[in-house]
Amino acid sequence: MNIIVPVKLVPDLVEELSIDASGTALDTAWLRMIINEFDDHAIEQAILLKERTGAHVTVLSTNVEGVDDLLFTAAAKGADRLIKLNGDFESGINNHTLARAMATILRDLKPDLVLTGVQANNDLDGSIGPQLAEYLGMPYIGYVSGVTVSGETVIVRKEYPGGLIVEMEASTPVLLGIQAAEQPPRYVAISKVRQMMKTMSIEELDLSTLDSTGAPVVNRMFQPEATGRATMLPENADNAANQLVTIFKELGVL
Amino acid sequence: MNQDIFVAIEHLRGKVSDISYIMLAAAHDLAHSSGGKVVAILLGHNVQELAGNLKADQVLYADHSFLTDFNPEAYQKTLAKIIDEYKPRAVFFGQTSIGMDIVGGISAQLGLPLVSSVRTIEADNKIISQICGGKIMAECKLPETTALITLVPGGYKPELGQSTQLPPITSIPVQMLDGLRIKLNQYIEPETSDVDISKESLLIAVGRGIQNQDNISLAEELAQAIGGVVCASRPVVDQGWLPTSRLVGKSGSTVKPKVYLAIGISGAPEHVEAITGSDVIIAINTDPAAPIFNIAKYGTTADLFDLVPALTEQIRNIKG
Amino acid sequence: MVTTAISNKPSFSQTFFSSLYKVENGERFRTCLQCGSCSGVCPFGYLMDYPPGRMIAGLRADEFDLVMESDTVWMCVSCYACAQICPSKIPITAGLMTRTKEELLLAGNVPTELQSALENSQRYGNPLGESPRKRADWAIGIQPPVTILGRDRRPVDVLWFVGDYPSYHPRVQLVAKSLAKVLNTLGINFGILGPEENTDGDTQRLAGERGLFEMLTEKNGKIFSKYQFEKIITSDPHAYNALKNEYPALGVSYPVQHYTQFLAERIDQLKPLLKQEIPAAVTYHDPCYLGRVNGVFDEPRMLLESIPGVKLMEMSHNHTNSLCCGGGGGGMWLDGFQWEKAHARLSEWRVHEAIDIGANILAVACPYEPPRFEDAIKMTQQAGRVVVKDIVELLAEALG
């Protein structure tokens, strides 16, 4: 089985984010990027399927700063083939553009199964999975937290609110939006990643002209004003506990 | 293209979900400036009565057995046909496990623009989205052609999308689709536990800040002392430290307790959207910049490992 | 006669055993007497499926795969008690325990708690997952201002390698502020790296992440080479150990002292300034990496005794047989895991020892210790009977 996992880097929310001079995009000076956590789960799910069924796993991403480390880490986890996509990403790239351009590449790679994160923290024009699926002519199921492969049938567990799960199935080829892998993304020792840097190579493919039709135009970006702020209780634990007891009494829960 | 605002109603197991009402509220805001009608699209089988309290100027109702349960492919193709036929000014979808499965495909198929993570509509056709864990807001202008918009909760109260008057319902014909590739096998109920947290009035919630499974006992002890129930945000449940039945958040339960004590929870939007119905939110987090403090009534940066045991002890002393 | 090719591929045990010889003094593994002292002195030896002595036996019996299937190796806190007591002077901690953890890590057998500490160390340069940009925030407001070399670009006499916990952990930031006060009072020309400082990586190394350690050494080495200073001092015995014993082999070599050594050298200048009395029975906990591993016992005690009013006492375990607080070898990030196995914390044991001799103050010199021992005091419900202070906090107090 041929599994492809498109992944992307997104802003790391540990750092404080700021808006650039134009007022319409994030300031990239201090911006630290991290793998989209849902894409990380997609990689984990793909590797789990590889371990169970002997599938071949390809991980691909756009050629931006940090992509090499991301791809070699995926290789250290078990990915068989690494691809980075070249293009003009200077002014950022949205999902409409990427889905269109990637579809051409993916079609040639003839995947049976495409796994990608169900969403990313910087999505403003929907998530990439459903759009990619449409261009590839594949059915799409999102919010998947469990995947079983049985011959050419893929059985998935899809999440609804309240903990309700629905089991759906489709024949390959199919594209899945991963919410969570069946286990959290595994740890990989840095020495293994460094080893991959020496033994694996990353293929480069060029994306055709980028067409961003369909994505919104951002007038401005800004940080939310805190509409309200909690009344802060003391930092000292005992004093805070005292005050909480008083509050609980006032609320009638104590 | 007409100036009507369409809303793709979401329902699950015989109940219209809150996001549908929130979408209707937002749609009315948008319809003010567009001058068109708010039209709810309801797909399903024998679910006409679900249209009962939708605050809409019209309901388009497509009934067929193949639409009984949500199926991404069936719903996407059916809605795409309807949208292509009616060409409204805009269509709202929920940013949910239902809406997000279909809106992207419709955008690609019909070549329609798509804006997601939208929270509110403002005057002059301005759409406000929240991204990056709620840390960044983006203002976009409503795209010119039929605009597809996915809505997150938080900007409107569901009550604003509800009505006591039955809206006019128009049945629209729908053709069974051939060659659907996605099949629904079965529903799997969440593990029944002794407790339904959505009905509890005092919740002690733990987040990533609890650090490990063992420390959850601190919360359990507090819950026991005060008569509450322990629940958790996604990272805790993902690690398997508490069962899914205790999950509070977008993919878990929405809760409406009297008191929600958030311990070591940062306040990411997917969690916050499920607790805004609480009467009083109290947050304990050592990070003064944690977004949870923006929605909590009371907060403290005291270390939970000091505060929770101290609180438990004081409560025990009072209760004797 | 039929000859068939016999597979001579070495077993996992054999490959692993040979890798141990490459560690410094590794050939001594051959001389293990199976006396059992290591397993006996190990603070968690009673819980391990394979305490150190039995691990070596397993290697010899070609059964090391069994050891790899157990997760009790993660109970090892790299306290060096075993290595210190071994009559054959086998490098058990650095060689066997660390190498085993390395293999477990490579096989993906790592407790989740530890996983995030390691991932954070790589991404953010600290195991806590805090923003690197905030690493010098603890120094805001200190007068005279603390020199941050990247910003103030001037040569200094002393580079103070602050460490992760003193930089970010609210309790331990108080220790950092105290040392800043003492250094300023003595008129020392010092600077810190602030956001450019990365975790020294020593505990991560002992937790099995050799690759991460080498990466961090390289990063820190590059930063050091940008600035001019005579020597490095540090408030962290783990950093001291790394900078003194491990970094040079990787090409990063500077004279380094723990702050207690640095201040002890200046005791004649410092002592007259310690005017404020601290009348208390004080006991000093020898941190593993300052005491047992690096032989620094006297200077901390000398500093304590120079404070007026202090009465210094020794706990029953002291100097070379001091009890580990449980934070080393990854233990700092394995609290839940270790608690589930042991239902006892080494830090609590130590606190009992301090109380038993009637100490009012448990004096420490390692940044892991204030939070660990203070938690232990709460857990053993001894709050009020003994408090935890870093030596430098007492010195700062005595300066008035």
Lay out the secondary structure.
The complex is a heterotrimer of chains A (254), B (320) and C (400).
Chain A: E1 2-6, E2 9-11, E3 33-35, H1 37-53, E4 56-62, H2 67-77, E5 81-86, H3 95-109, E6 113-117, H4 128-136, E7 140-150, E8 153-159, E9 165-171, E10 174-178, H5 190-199, E11 202-206, E12 218-222, E13 231-232, H6 237-251
Parallel strand pairs in A: 1-4, 1-6, 4-5, 5-11, 6-10, 7-10
Antiparallel strand pairs in A: 2-3, 7-8, 8-9
Chain B: E1 5-8, E2 11-12, E3 15-16, H1 18-34, E4 38-44, E5 58-63, H2 72-86, E6 90-94, H3 99-110, E7 114-122, E8 126-131, E9 136-141, E10 147-151, E11 169-171, E12 182-188, E13 202-206, H4 216-226, E14 229-232, H5 234-238, E15 259-263, H6 269-272, E16 280-284, E17 298-300, H7 304-319
Parallel strand pairs in B: 1-4, 1-6, 4-5, 5-11, 6-10, 7-10, 13-14, 13-15, 15-16, 16-17
Antiparallel strand pairs in B: 2-3, 7-8, 8-9
Chain C: H1 12-21, H2 37-41, H3 52-60, H4 64-69, H5 81-85, H6 92-106, H7 112-124, E1 147-148, H8 149-152, E2 158-161, H9 164-168, H10 170-185, E3 190-192, H11 202-206, H12 210-224, E4 231-234, H13 237-246, E5 256-258, H14 259-265, H15 267-270, E6 280-284, H16 298-305, E7 310-313, H17 335-342, H18 346-356, E8 361-364, H19 369-379, E9 387-390, H20 391-399
Parallel strand pairs in C: 1-3, 2-3, 2-4, 4-5, 6-7, 6-8, 8-9
Structural write-up:
The complex is a heterotrimer of chains A (254), B (320) and C (400). With 254 residues, chain A is of the alpha/beta class. Chain A contains six helices and 13 strands. Chain A has a single domain, classed as 3-Layer(aba) Sandwich (Rossmann fold), CATH 3.40.50. Helix content of chain A is 30%, strand content 28%. In chain A, a hairpin with a 2-residue loop joins β7 and β8. Chain A is globular and about 65 Å long. The mean pLDDT of chain A is 93. Chain B has two domains: 167 residues, Rossmann fold (3-Layer(aba) Sandwich), CATH 3.40.50.620; 123 residues, Rossmann fold. Chain B is 25% helix and 26% strand. Chain B has seven helices and 17 strands. In chain B, the strands form three sheets. In chain B, strands 9-8-7-10-6-1-4-5-11 form a nine-stranded mixed sheet. Chain C has three domains: 95 residues, no CATH class; 144 residues, 3-Layer(aba) Sandwich (Rossmann fold); 130 residues, Rossmann fold (3-Layer(aba) Sandwich). The mean pLDDT of chain C is 91. Chain C is built from 20 helices and nine strands. Classes of the chains: A alpha/beta (254), B alpha/beta (320), C alpha/beta (400). Chains A and C meet through α5 of A and α6, α7 and α12 of C. β12 of chain A pairs antiparallel with β9 of chain B, so a sheet runs across the interface.
